[in-house]
Amino acid sequence: MSKVSEKIKEEFLALLPPTIFFFIALHIVALVRSLMERATGLSAFSSASIAVAALILGKAVLIADMLPIINRYPDKPLIYNVAWKTLIYLVVSAIIHYLERLYEFTRQAGGMVAANHEMAMQMIWPRFWAIQIVLFVMVLAYCTLAELARAIGGTRLLRVFFGPPPLPVLTRP
Length: 173
Fold this sequence. Notes:
This protein is mostly helical.
């Protein structure tokens, strides 16, 4: 394998866990939002936009993990990095969630200032915070598993959860 294809494979494999996690988490959030609004369910369009958002968030997590500020406590107990990363990711998710709602209101109101005012008046804030709580729990779970994988190794973590892989059956010629 060439170095380029090896690097692409490495990046793809690193991108899979956060992308799969956020794909599932964002579908849960969309379903919760849909149930709160008494809608009938998720459309194919929303599922496709969730997939794109999951890819973006997965890559954003990988980029953020390379920043020195995100891994502030590498020599302390895992809870320090888990709490720090959860806080950062939760603030970012709250901003994204707010901007997403603001975009929806901007289409109706015609301008950002009017949309922000209209959103503040019409938005059901307990629903907004309920979704943030769901996101908090999911991000906390992700950060906990990611830090645990970093500390003990991904292969060992998989063995702890799923057991050792079965031995290949040897057949005699």
